[in-house]
Amino acid sequence: MGYPRRALRAWLSVCAFLPCFVRTAEAGPHWEYEAGVQAARTEVLSGPLVGLPLSGFVAVGLPIWSREHVRAMLQLGYDDAASRNRIDTQDLDADLDPDRQLFRLQSLVVPVRLVADLGPHSFIELGPEFRLLLNESVTEYRQDGLIPATRAAGTKGLNRGGLAVTAGAGFRWRGLAGQPHVSVRWVEGFSHLVTYPGGGDIRPRGAQLALGWCR
Asked: Which of 29, 104, 144, 179 has its CA 20 to 30 A from that of 137?
């Protein structure tokens, strides 16, 4: 059994036993659904980032513990993060080599977020998340289109399991037969997925805007 599977099983085991140590404040599940956009940052090659292409994520969650103004949410989601880099062509042929790179990480995410109410409508959230890389793809091309784009994809040789932490704030209200909410978050990864020779490390990192609804 590989490292990602062992880490995921350990993470889910911890989440599963949390309700055994605390009392749930409200009976019955209160499912939460989220979808959003994100601007990811992945510094792979030397040279600055070029723009911040928007990518997205979706998730479904359930409270595993709650008190009067604090609760813990366990989620399961899919994350599709894309970033665009400029390739340093100083030592390359400026007309025949690519000068742009589109990098994409597709991952299964399992966040556990502690959510604290600041009032009737506002809240803050903080917590860790486990990430399992499903696919990685890199597309290199020239901005002027002089050469064909090349694309490589797969997970061979990558450390597929990783940990990250998220922090954010949001606003909720009553409507749509439940409680819609909007929140902004920052995701900061701690685990290196892979390190390119002579380049930067690859970790999940970026700003998220989430739209959600809880029944």
From this structure: 144
What are 167's two structure tokens? Answer: 């922090």
What's the average model confidence in pLDDT over 160-170?
Answer: 95
Angle at 189 between CA 187 and CA 192, to 5 degrees: 155
User: What is the model's pTM?
Assistant: 0.80
> CA of 109: how far to CAs of 53, 115, 118, in Å?
20, 18, 27
Q: Is the pLDDT of residue 187 over 90?
A: yes
Range of the domain at 205: 3-11+31-214
Rounded to an integer, what distance in angstroms lies between the CA atom of residue 83 and that of residue 103? 5
- Residue 19 located in a structural domain: no
b/e 89-103 (16+ beta carbons within 10 angstroms → b): eeeeeeeeebbbbbb
Least confident residue range of 36-50, 67-81, 201-215: 36-50
CATH code of residue 56:
2.40.160.20
Which amino acid is located at 201 in the chain?
Answer: D
Q: Which one is predicted more confidently, 125 or 155?
A: 125
